[in-house]
Design a protein that fits this description.
This protein has 385 residues and is an alpha+beta fold. The protein contains 10 helices and 10 strands. Helix 6 runs antiparallel to helix 9. Bound molecules: flavin-adenine dinucleotide (FAD).
Length: 385
């Protein structure tokens, strides 16, 4: 019996997981090294994700999607990340752009933009970060100023996952008069929207990460959610997104564990398989334990979300724990491989670089600890305690 803890998925979850496993084995994993080497965005894989209905799987059926649960979505992310972290980052970016609309979009917005994502795979990006405002999202300076009954959006967003590949952008901007933050839908093709810079990244090199320069007009109908409540919407979206990044982390960690364990039983040193040297075997024991624990946390968080619970606490803990467990897993994997683990094209060298951002995006580990620290304080200072 395999040692790693396995989630008990329902029929829906199993169907999606098996589909993702199949596509990953046939198409995504074989491309992983090439995408990393050439820093190439895999449009052909995006088409497969659309054709398999994975791109819009979280979109409700009433808007043309599959209405899949977050648990099923996370199972897909984990399988894809295990074979190709870059492709999993493309998958993870989809709900990040879609959830603001799902949570607070108008009926028209849902029909047209979520419908476009579900039917044609027209991606939406979550454009919050700026050079001067990453963790400190309340410091964003992109402005929204009234101009002839419309809104002029001015500023520059950066580090946008799927940036350039996405057609629509949920732009968080500060209203010039009230200074409150509001979310607006912006089309990449409209005048005054320019994407002219792509990051040269350490890992996830098969994804596009771009800037977004704005000097453009949008109508009131472009506002997503309640005017002035954009930050609340961003945080609600990130609360869900963090669960998906936990799934991505577990997928990368599992890939590192599989490779390292296989190597440890095959490689011999000092007359025995290196797994029988406790210093190596114990690393694998720790990896198996931590990956199982991370998986339990993320599945519990996803199921809680599917039951309608608030997952801002559990999802934050799952992302924090899973990303740091994945860090330890990829680090141990490189160590277990020794010299070859440090050299291309060994896959663990790539896992080591791909994993790193899971501790940075959708909330750095420090920011997540800050969120949890505040929750602890609130638990123990509320009047009922
Ligand atoms: C590949 C990639 C994809 C991304 N995709 C998107 C996307 O699609 N949309 C989007 O909007 N953004 C995206 N981002 C941006 C990402 O969310 C930010 O990089 C992240 O939030 C951190 O912000 P920062 O880089 O400005 O770091 P900073 O906020 O400058 O932080 C620097 C360091 O200081 C620490 N720090 C900051 N404040 C505190 C504090 N109060 N206490 C303790 N430590 C603190 C941080 O933890 C970090 O270690 C992406 C980034 C990358 C690399």
């Amino acid at each position: 019996m395999a040692l790693l803890w396995e989630p008990r998925l329902d029929d829906e979850g199993l169907r999606w997981r098996d589909l993702a496993r199949d596509l990953t084995a046939k198409y995504f994993a074989p491309l992983a090294a090439e995408l990393d080497r050439d820093q190439r965005y895999p449009w052909e894989s995006v088409k497969r994700l659309i054709d398999a209905k994975i791109a819009g799987m979280f979109v409700p059926k009433s808007y043309g999607g599959e209405g899949a649960s977050l648990t099923a979505f996370c199972s897909v992310v984990e399988e894809v990340a295990r074979g190709c972290a870059s492709t999993s980052a493309i998958v993870v970016a989809l709900p990040l752009g879609g959830f603001p609309l799902l949570l607070e979009g108008s009926e028209d917005q849902k029909q047209s933009y979520l419908g476009g994502l579900a039917r044609e795979g027209i991606a939406i990006n979550f454009a919050l970060s700026e050079r001067g405002a990453g963790s400190d999202i309340a410091a964003i300076e992109t402005s929204a100023t009234r101009e002839g009954g419309n809104w002029r959006l001015r500023g520059e967003k950066c580090w946008l996952g799927n940036g350039g590949a996405a057609r629509h952008y949920i732009v968080f901007a500060r209203e010039a008069e009230s200074r409150a933050i509001t979310a607006f839908l912006v089309d990449k093709e409209q005048p005054g929207v320019v994407i002219d810079f792509f990051e040269d990244k350490m890992g996830l090199r098969g994804t596009l990460t771009s800037n977004l320069k704005l000097d453009t007009l949008v109508e009131d109908s472009a506002i997503v959610g309640t005017p002035g409540k954009g930050l609340r919407l961003a945080l609600k979206t990130l609360a869900v997104g963090r669960v998906t990044v936990a799934a991505q982390s577990v997928g990368i960690a599992r890939a590192a564990y599989d490779a390292a364990a296989r190597h440890a039983v095959e490689r011999r040193a000092f007359g025995q398989a290196i797994i029988d040297h406790q210093a190596v075997g114990f690393k694998l024991a720790d990896m198996a334990t931590e990956i199982s624990a991370a998986r339990m946390m993320l599945h519990e968080a996803a199921q809680a979300y599917d039951r309608g619970a608030d997952v801002s606490g559990l999802g934050t803990m799952a992302k924090l724990y899973a990303s740091e467990a994945a860090h330890r897993a990829v680090d141990s994997a490189v160590q277990i491989f020794g010299g070859p683990g440090y050299v291309k094209p060994n896959a663990v060298e790539r896992y080591y670089r791909d994993q790193r951002v899971t501790e940075i995006y959708e909330g750095t580990s420090e920011v997540l600890r800050m969120v949890l620290m505040r929750a602890v304080r609130s638990d123990f200072t509320s009047p009922s305690k």
